[in-house]
Automatic annotation (TrEMBL):
Protein name: UTP--glucose-1-phosphate uridylyltransferase
Gene Ontology MF terms: UTP:glucose-1-phosphate uridylyltransferase activity
Taxonomic superkingdom: Bacteria
Keyword Nuclease assigned: no
Organism of derivation: Alloscardovia omnicolens
Protein residues bound to substrate: 190
Length: 474
């Protein structure tokens, strides 16, 4: 595989990649080359079960303490995603989520609204930084510049994550794809945030402006809004690295979770890809591992700089092998491997890291059109402070026929007037090709069967367990 690695490095040099980007890729490639899976057996770890909850101090946190901490906090949003799994070809954060006061609001619009609202409410600077990818930078920055309420001059608005070659699965060489050379490249996962921060020099700039803490989260998680209460707790804790975790539901059983490594006695992130097949059922048991990783992370900047200096900007994080096709939209294109690292895995590098339990309201990700289906429904209200508000954050199970609803364009065409009401729905299962009229409603275990032809739910109809309800009493 040496020839493959050399060819990858040569391609990166020709593309103007930095020494840090190349060194990081080289490290991941060599880990992949050894073919060590790196199982984290259940017998080698101890479940994390007893942690502090935000509810324990939410009502007793002094307002001054919270505001002072927020005044020393910067927000970093991971904004490199394209949403290719939903058929998008631009920044996922520019996907419309819902309307607010007659305006169509995208993820990025809501994020900017959350930041501006907190700046005004608490009278703090609260810098926002986007970690864009080479494919999201231009469009995302253009959207920010068109927001008349958001202003930021002294601190850079973005850092750009690295990119690396996709590797041909069978021989380790960089893949060639002349149909679209851009698809020969991929990001190195959100663990790349650390080397990007190191190389950009932005940590020094933040400290010069009095910023001591960094709150990092995904741009497609609208629940991860700035929190003065959590900032206050983190500032007065003795920890340098803190991750928000939430109680598992059935939908979260396959998510990553934090455990204690028995060999080191340190907190460690265990992704499901690191769980041995014999341990899968236990790892997904919410009675054994009750919390999952929200990927909302708080870091003390001074401590992060020390760790980055120790490792010359390249943290020794576990390598994730992501098997895909070179064109994500074409299952028949070449099989490739994308090497990635996870941001939360850095928890094991800090001597005094911790987790904190948050409510479900801080984890509202959109990975599929089924997630978007819920966020666009009447289950949510977007407040004037740009918070996605729901009564209990216990959502109905949604199953949409992937043949007709997986792609965002197909999804939008089938809900021309918006998604149905879900206020009374326990679950929604749509099989087949259904288009919905205006003011439709789902209740109970709503179910539409496949009629083997394009079908229509008329205006104002109700969908229950037996499909469209009859309009007369039987």
């Amino acid at each position: 595989m040496t020839d493959g690695l050399n060819a990858c490095i040569e391609r990166m040099y020709k593309a103007g990649m930095s020494d840090v980007a190349i060194a990081q890729f080289q490290r991941m490639y060599k880990v992949w080359e050894t073919d060590e899976v790196g199982w984290m057996h259940e017998s080698d770890i101890t479940p994390m079960t007893d942690i502090v909850s935000v509810a324990d101090f939410h009502d007793t946190m002094p307002a001054r303490t919270a505001r002072t901490a927020l005044a020393k906090t910067a927000i970093l949003k991971l904004n490199g995603g394209l949403g290719t799994s939903m058929g998008l070809d631009g920044p996922k954060s520019l996907l419309p989520v819902r309307r607010h006061k007659a305006r169509q609001m995208r993820f990025l619009d809501i994020i900017l609204g959350q930041v501006v609202s907190m700046r005004i409410q608490h009278k703090v600077q609260l810098p926002l930084i986007l970690m864009n990818s080479f494919r999201t930078s231009k469009e995302s920055l253009n959207a920010v510049r068109h927001n008349r309420r958001f202003h930021q001059d002294d601190i850079p608005l973005e850092i750009v994550q690295h990119r690396e070659p996709k590797i041909t699965a069978h021989n380790g060489s960089p893949v060639d794809y002349t149909d679209n050379p851009e698809l020969q490249w991929c990001p190195p996962g959100h663990g790349d945030v650390y080397s990007t921060l190191w190389e950009s020099g932005i940590l020094d700039i933040l400290q010069e402006h009095g910023i001591e803490y960094l709150f990092i989260s995904n741009s497609d998680n609208l629940g991860a809004r700035p929190s003065s209460i959590i900032a206050g707790y983190f500032a007065h804790s003795k920890t340098d690295f803190m991750v928000e975790v939430a109680r598992k539901t059935t939908a979260d059983r396959k998510g990553g979770h934090f455990v204690v490594d028995n060999a080191t006695n340190r907190l460690t992130l265990r992704e499901m890809s690191q769980v041995h097949p014999d341990d899968k059922s236990v790892a997904m048991d919410e009675q054994v591992h009750p919390y999952f990783n929200t990927n909302n992370i708080w870091i003390r900047i001074s401590a992060l700089k020390k760790i980055l200096k120790k490792y010359n900007g390249i943290l020794p994080l576990p390598v994730i092998r992501n098997n895909k096709t070179v064109d994500p939209t074409d299952p028949h294109s070449a099989q490739v491997v994308q090497l990635e690292t996870a941001m939360g895995a850095a928890i094991s590098l800090f001597d005094n890291s911790c987790c904190i339990e948050v409510t479900r309201s801080r984890f509202l990700p959109v990975k599929t059109t089924e997630d978007l289906f819920i966020l666009r429904s009447d289950r949510f209200h977007l407040t004037d402070a740009y918070e996605m508000e729901d009564g209990n954050y216990i959502f109905p199970n949604i199953s949409l026929d992937q043949r007709y609803y997986k792609n965002i364009q197909d999804f939008n065409e089938r809900f021309p007037y918006g998604v149905p009401s879900l206020a009374a729905a326990a679950s929604v299962t749509i099989e087949g090709d259904w288009t919905f009229g205006r003011d439709t409603s789902c209740f109970g275990d709503a179910h539409l069967e496949d009629l083997n032809s394009p079908s229509y739910v008329p205006n104002g109809e109700y969908i229950g367990s037996n499909g469209i309800e009859p309009d007369t009493w039987q």
